Amino acid sequence: MALPLEGLKILDLARLGPGPHASQILGDFGADIIKIEPPSRGGKELTMPDVLRRNTRSMRLNLKKPEGREVFEKLVRQVDVVVEGFRPGVAAKLGMDYEALSNIKEDIICVSLSGLGQSGPYAQVAAHDLNYQSLAGVPHMTGDIDGAPKIPGNAIADDAGGISAALAIMIAVHHKNRTGEGQYVDFAMVDTLLNMMLLQLNEVQETGVSPRRGETTLSGKYAFYNVYECADGGYVSLGTFEPWFWEELCGLIGVPEFASHQYPETGEEREAQKARLREIFLTKPRDEWVDLLMLQDTCVTPVLSLDEVMANEHHRARGAILAGSDIGQDFIDQVGMIYQFSKTPGTIRRRAPETGADTGDILTEIGYTEAEIGSLLETITTP
């Protein structure tokens, strides 16, 4: 069965941030991802974990040497998309910005990945994931009402940014397929986070009120949308928005009087309701609560640890978590496809390559002879 993105060629120069995740997603569905790696320095390699490098190919290339530059330009002529993650302005200095690339291939798509974008007063600010989250208000809305902002437990800007970057690439590819035009994509991780915060930010504009963490439904204001500790130290989460689900929950945990007071009017009443639920959930271990409530239309689930996530029966049944033995020899268990397509499902076809492992094959594909490759490899793969 043909994969949906077969024939799409992407040259990936973005070694960190959302770039590797975007490449992994597109590679899972058949895109030919060629990762450009710099020469090794003392055996040290700056690469992402293998799970983000599956279904890709690796080429070692010194872009500072004329021979390396020549190879790079030949590659550009044969790919659809070039993705780079340099600090804003660096690609232009290297002669690898959209203007330079479009002179090599007129219909090229060039995607610049950065935290804060190529323009604006913060474009040159050094920052990482937590900084981008902070500029979008994410930590401000995370944590207890009387406490400091909390650090979310994963690299949201990188992870969501990778998904968003894959979408951006495919929008540009779709436009090219319709019109024959390439284009430049200025992708900022913070822009993705702003879109994730769209509803909260829109509410500020509509109401004129800028809330703090703990003062909104989604940040724990009410008992029905909260996390509760259980007798064994585990936790359950409640997402019981609908009044009929809330009524069902209240009956099952022994507080039917709360059913008609889902939104207590005073802060004192709200805190008393949450305190009562905290007392109740401390009376049983987590899994007993899950057995009692999860399948009863109460919007209750366990808060899983990461090892529990990997072993979870639902994720395994859907193929969202794959057993290494089901993928192939020497694979470990890992997260599977991000999307489940009926006609064109993605696959894990190859393990992460050793750095530079595909250099010779790629040189052959772009027209170098065996003799030329023999004399060129040492030059283009070393400092």
What do these coordinates show?
With 383 residues, the chain is of the alpha/beta class. The protein folds into two domains: 235 residues, Rossmann fold (3-Layer(aba) Sandwich); 81 residues, formyl-coa transferase, domain 3 (2-Layer Sandwich), CATH 3.30.1540. 40% of the residues lie in helices and 12% in strands. It has 16 helices and eleven strands. The strands form three sheets. A six-stranded parallel sheet has the order 3-2-1-4-5-6, sandwiched between helices. The chain has a three-stranded antiparallel sheet with strand order 7-8-9, covered by helices on one side. The protein has a two-stranded antiparallel sheet with strand order 10-11. β1, α1 and β2 form a beta-alpha-beta unit. α1 crosses α6 and α6 crosses α7. The longest helix has 24 residues. The protein is elongated, with a radius of gyration of 25 Å.
Q: Give the CATH superfamily of the largest domain.
A: Crotonobetainyl-coa:carnitine coa-transferase, domain 1
CATH architecture of the largest domain: 3-Layer(aba) Sandwich
CATH-defined topology of the largest domain: Rossmann fold
CATH domain class name of the largest domain: Alpha Beta
Structural class: alpha/beta
Averaged pLDDT, please? Answer: 96
Shape: elongated
Q: Compute the separation of the termini in Å.
A: 42 Å
Q: What is the tally of helical segments?
A: 16
Strand order of the main beta sheet, please? 3-2-1-4-5-6
* Order of secondary-structure elements: EHEEHEHHEHHEHHEEHHHEHHEHEHH
Overall strand count: 11
Largest beta-sheet characterization:
6 strands, parallel
Strand content: 5-15%
Approximate helicity band: 25-40%
How many discrete domains? 2
Low-confidence sequence ranges: none
Spatial extent as radius of gyration = 25 Å
